[in-house]
């Protein structure tokens, strides 16, 4: 809609709008759910699956939880090109250690993750984001990883709906390693799309003041990712007007 909008500075708090790169976070239902899940997993060494479509606020909420627990959260965002060893070596690295023996067997890498995390004080949380990109071979070893770290570390697997659907399908087919993984996941939490009220509030937090504009912009956004993108587009319009 911003392509057809004649920019009116009176519709905005320009200081907030132009500060769009400092991403605002609202305490939405999904935000509170994820924060509670992260806290429970870390505090009680649980393993949860979080199912959420892109743009539901999952990754930005993880960032906020990490800021509040810097020394106890180990975050990895999966990349499609990662091999099995790349993936588990990255987890070892996020735990504060590096694999000096690059030819190590995968078993030894996973055992090292568990050993090193167990040496750290306090409770810890391992977040594996973009878990929908996990290959079947990478999924095969997740139950071994869970067993290796369960003494003091919770685990969150976060991915979209198709990730959960694939796991359910693979379990029904009794594919190797998947029933064992399911036995170790304490629960799956499925997030709902953000409400219109939440989208409107996020626009307000980003400097939108005109209610008609807020309503119109909210209706055109399917999720919070769309809201952030729309805010950035309007911020560019504001910068263009000032130049």
In short:
The chain has twelve helices and five strands. It has helices at residues 14-18, 29-44, 58-68, 84-94, 106-119, 136-140, 142-149, 161-172, 178-184, 196-205, 211-219, 224-242, and strands spanning 47-51, 73-77, 124-129, 153-159, 187-190.
Features:
single chain, 243 residues, alpha/beta, Rossmann fold, five-stranded parallel β-sheet
Provide an overview of this structure:
The protein has a five-stranded parallel sheet with strand order 2-3-4-1-5, with helices on both faces. It is α/β, with parallel strands linked by helices and 243 residues long. The protein has twelve helices and five strands. Helix content is 52%, strand content 11%. It has two domains: 2-25 and 194-242, no CATH class; 29-190, P-loop containing nucleotide triphosphate hydrolases (Rossmann fold, 3-Layer(aba) Sandwich).
Biggest pleated sheet: 5 strands, parallel
Average residue pLDDT: 93
Q: Which stretches are low in confidence, meaning pLDDT under 50 for 5 or more residues running?
A: none
Rounded to the nearest angstrom, the distance between the terminal CA atoms is 22 Å
CATH class of the largest domain: Alpha Beta
What name does CATH use for the topology of the largest domain? Rossmann fold
Structural class by sheet pairing and helices? alpha/beta
């Amino acid at each position: 809609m911003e392509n057809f909008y004649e920019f009116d500075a009176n519709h905005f708090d320009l200081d907030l709008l132009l500060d769009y790169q400092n991403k605002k976070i609202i305490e939405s239902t999904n935000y509170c759910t994820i924060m509670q899940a992260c806290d429970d997993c870390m505090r009680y060494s649980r393993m949860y699956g979080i199912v959420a479509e892109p743009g539901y606020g999952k990754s930005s909420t993880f960032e906020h939880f990490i800021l509040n627990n810097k020394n106890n959260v180990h975050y990895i965002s999966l990349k499609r090109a990662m091999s099995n060893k790349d993936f588990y070596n990255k987890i070892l690295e996020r735990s504060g250690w590096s694999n000096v023996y690059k030819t190590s067997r995968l078993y030894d890498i996973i055992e090292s993750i568990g050993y090193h995390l167990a040496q750290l004080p306090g409770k810890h949380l391992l977040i594996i984001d973009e878990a929908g990109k996990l290959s079947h071979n990478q999924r095969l070893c997740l139950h071994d990883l869970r067993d290796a770290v369960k003494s003091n570390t919770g685990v969150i697997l976060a991915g979209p709906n198709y990730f959960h659907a694939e796991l359910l399908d693979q379990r029904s087919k009794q594919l190797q390693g998947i029933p064992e993984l399911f036995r170790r996941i304490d629960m799956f939490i499925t997030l709902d799309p953000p409400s219109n009220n939440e989208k409107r509030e996020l626009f307000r937090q980003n400097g939108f003041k005109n209610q008609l504009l807020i309503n119109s912009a909210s209706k055109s956004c399917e999720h919070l990712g769309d809201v952030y993108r729309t805010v950035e587009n309007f911020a560019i319009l504001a910068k263009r007007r000032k130049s």
